[in-house]
Specification:
Its EC number is 3.2.1.51. By secondary structure, this protein is an alpha/beta fold. It is built from 13 helices and 14 strands.
Length: about 475
Amino acid sequence: MNISYCLIRGDVTVHNSPYYKSIKFSPDWKDLDTRQLPRWYDEAKLGIFLHWGVYSVPGFSSEWFWNNWKGGDKNIEKFMTQHYSPGFTYQDFAPMFKAEFFDSSKWTELFLKSGARYVVLTSKHHDGYTLFPSECSFSWNSYEVGPKLDIVGQLSKAVREVGLKFGVYHSLYEWYNPIYVEDKKNNFSTHYYADTKLWPDLKQLINDYKPSVLWSDGDWEAYDTYWKSTDFIAWLYNESPVKDEIVVNDRWGIGIPCKHGDFYNCVDRYNPGELQKHKWENAFTIDKKSWGFRKTMSLNDTMTTREILYQVASTVSCGGNVLINIGPTQEGTIAPIFEERLIDLGNWLKINGEAIYSTSPWLYQKDSLNSDVWYTCAKTPYNSQHPTAKPRVDDDISGIFAIFLSWPSSSLLQLKDVVSHLQTGIYKIELLGNKGVVNWKIESGVVNIELPDKAAVVSEYAWVLKISIN
């Protein structure tokens, strides 16, 4: 097999190099796991995820279009037979990915309106097509074929200009890259792909674009020793230009998800519904059937604003972040239904963001009497060692937030788990977005909170009570 090598720029990756004599973190999980989570990520709470690439051109099935097609998916085969000439290949879609209406400023304007604090773009999905001029993806990147743009470069600049953090998703593997296929055929006893393609691409991304998030994926076919994951993360934490800022997820090899990384994804749409000991993230997509754009998407296929707010409230209450995915069109526009959902979220956060941003889990997450209510709190000091931990006895809690997702028919909200706290001092309860306090009283171990007339309430979908010292 003829293998073309792509050199790693300026970095040595073997253990016997001088580079390892001065590292702070050793290239093993036990030591890497001792790194403290950069505080910005825990406080941000909300991010936007973007799956965009050649698969957006057919806009059919999902971002796994190529793999499913080659795997014999009958619906895709029928689609291709009906709409494309015989012999048409997946690579033939790439010149059609022109992104002619892509406007990074318009995108970032929407992201700002959504209330998100960071943005993660697919720099490369499993098809191997990169959205940056990869030095190892010759004629299979957005700079050479398709839009003829460095999309990662343009979007990273625009995102940072408006004060948001920028991150990249990067698939470790590539379905049909012949070098990877050769390594797989050899039961991953060889490392041609990892050494000559994966590492150089990752180093280029970090050095050229300095992302604050590296969202790894496509790890499940090989162990972390093949990917050389700990070597790379040690370099990332010790020597990279983003060593103090960057956060990584947990998808670095077989058996690694939910065990190692700055934050855990575990599985797609991960939402355990209870407090987690380690920082985690709930990545979900507004189109329930695909991460990439689908031209056949219907309104019923999309998450409602209420469903999105449920994910936000329940996730943040349990110590997680939410990463909300949308798939842009092949032309580079964002579908109006996605715009509407993100703007709805942003409008809600303008009123209720105090209960989300920079908050911490409270003593309880979901009220034991009213399962539609999720708690967060504002406290000091920040627990840098365990950001998802419950408040300590000596913590100063300046506010407890009760996020309720259903308005009670009688406008009388009943809660149980906050009662013992209310009995320790003189507290006031406010409905965020409305002036004045609300009346409340404790009876038989339950607090009854008299809500105002719903017609006079600003929020439309979910509501937040703030409990604080009077």
